[in-house]
Batch of 2 targets.
Target 1
Amino acid sequence: MDYSNWIKRMLTVRDEMRMLDSENLYRYYPPNKCCSAEDILQVENRLKITLDKQYAEFLKCADGWREFFASISLLGTQELISSPDMDMAGDLLKTVYPLNPQLEFAMEDLLPIAVDEVGSSFFVITPPINERNGTVIWFVGQEVERYDSFDGFLNAILQYNIDDLEESFKGKNVNNE
C-alpha cells in the first residue's frame, strides 16, 4: 500500500469533516512525523516482539495519529514503549481477553495498536501466521470486527471516516466509490 497516498486521502476527508463540524464533535490532529528504522528496532527490543511489517512501514510514514477516527488514536513507537494510552489498552486487553474465548492467540501475543480516549474501544494486532501479516482485531468489550491485515484495517478506518463525513456532516447516504 502507498501509505503517503493513504495519509493524503485521510487528511482530505478529515479536513472536510473539520470544516463541516459546526458542533465541534471531534478534534482534528495531523499524523505524527515519521519514525526511523532505529525507532522500530527500539520498540521491538523493548517489547521483545517483531512488529507487523505493514504496521512498521506505516509508522515510518506516520508514527501514530491522535484521534484519527473519532476519539481513537493509533499508537506510535513512543506510545508503544510507554504511555498512558498503551497502559489503558493493556488494562483493557487484560479485562476483555477472558471474555472472548474464541480468540486463538495468547494474550501476550496481542499487541494493542489503537485505543479511544475513554477506554471503551481498542484494537490489537496479532502475530503473523504462515508468512501472512497479522490480523487486526477491534474490541468494544467483545470482539467487534477483524481485519485481515494492517492495510485492511487502515482501509476500513478511511472508509469509516468517509461514512461519518457523508452521514453525520453531509447528511447523505454513503455510496461506496
Target 2
Amino acid sequence: MLTLQGTVVNVLRHAQRTGRDGKTYEAYNQVQIMVEEPLQDGQKRVGVQTLITDTPEAFERLTNRPVSVPVGVYIRNGSPAFFMQKGASPEAYVDRSAS
C-alpha cells in the first residue's frame, strides 16, 4: 500500500438511484482530497483525487485538515488512479516539511 497525503476538501454522498435503463445503482460515498503532485521538472501541481469511501463520517470530521490515507494504485486510461481498501480511515497529520 502507498500513502496519499493531502487536505480533505469535500465529502460527497450519492443516493441509490435507478438509471434510464432500469438498472439500480447502489448508494456510495466519495471523498475529495487536494494533493500536491510532483512534476519531473521539480515543480508541483495541485490536483484533487476523488476516492470512494465507506467511512464518510471520518473524513467529514477532518474537512479542511491535512490527512493521510492508505491507498492502492492502478492504471486507468493511461494514468494512475487510486483506491482505498474497505474500512480505511484517514489519519490527521502535521506537515513537518513546511517548517
